[in-house]
Amino acid sequence: MLRPFYVAGCVLWCLALVVYAAAPPVESEEVKAAQALIESMGDRDWAVRDKAERRLAGLGMAALPVLRRAATHPDPEIRRRVWRLLPGLEQAVLMTPKRYTFTVVDRPFADVIDALKKATGYRIENNAGTLTNPPGPDGRIHPGERKFSYQFKDLTYWQIMDQITLDTRLYTQHNWGDDIVRLYQGGVLPPHIGYSDGIRYAATNFQTYRNVDLSRPADTLPAGGRSESLTLNLSLWAEPHMPFLGVDAPRLEVARDDRRASMLPILSPDEALNAAGGGRWVSRRYSSGGYKQPTVQVSVNLSAPSPGARKLASVKGVVPVTLLIGQRPVVLTEDIQNAKDLKKDIEGVEFHIQNFKTLPNNQVQVQFTVNNKANAGDYNFLNTIYQRIELFDDKGTKLQNYGSSWGGGPLGMMNLTMTFGQFGAAKMGNPAKFVYHHWSTMTHDVAFELKDLPLP
Hints:
Number of helices: 9
Number of domains: 4
Largest sheet: 6 strands, antiparallel
Distance between the termini: 75 Å
Helix content: 10-25%
């Protein structure tokens, strides 16, 4: 009875040996060192194995190609340690932002944006119009369009965009439900910003709350019944290709005023238990419902500063976020107008197209049901399904989503009606391709650190 499984196991084992042995040799010194450490992770001495694993982790992404090959190593102890190292390094690859280098010399603003679009591949629109020259040293504004010169070298998208918006006093607007970055007049760059793994963060404001307990005599209460709390609000911006799907409560590692007194919040026993994994949790919980969004806001609870303190000298922690790292389009039908009663199953999600209707205002409606049979209790999926559906005309132009209505059904099922139409004054072709986007997600801790924030 066991013979077929034994034979199959032997075949898989031999294949693993072949894959590992057939990998082409690489001559770099870093790779050679990593290969030697791989073998040391199979040493009979536990201390040698542990030291080799730590050194491989210290090599970071330089060790990643060798670790990927060693995932099929014949030694089970080596494979176990390799698979323990791989997820963190693979995530580091995803979160390492691309850096861009390009030069613009004495060109109008439209050319600056064109160069940025070409470098990044992002869709960026200038809705600020023609930029004129600022007042000169004599106070006069010289006629003509303003020209710009930049030499960007090895900078991330947000570093470049912040330099441009600082010079032009424009601001970015992302919340139109698409992947276009729009620039508008009237912006200022926040003074307290930072960058972490391609994500930009900034301090938004402080809020303070004071309370006096009048329900009991003051001499029977701690601090005479007086209490004070302080909240620091932060905003985070993702790169356009990797938007947020959710955010959780920040964890604090350091919070200190300019008199070196701790401003870490005093935790309840339950909160202290949650904080045992590292850092201090604030008491507030967050959820975005899984919606795709370019920016999120969080609040960090702090203790009151010491008497006479003027600044939050240092605050450091992490914000756990969920990111959309991949979107795979799946065509439900090439001809939506003749797809009535069509059913299609995509990895456990069943779509049933019920009706297509043309509206008198140059818009169309698609009625369909979605049944998440693979994970019926995933409410985030149902909440975000309208962000995953697109309709294209017969010319390949994406139509604007003008809203949706829905009704519930059995657990995991939703009845939807989505309305589509043309973008602006563009002429709409014949609606044709109906597309669903399968999402790949990842959780990540965004590290932040800010210094010298003025206290209220």
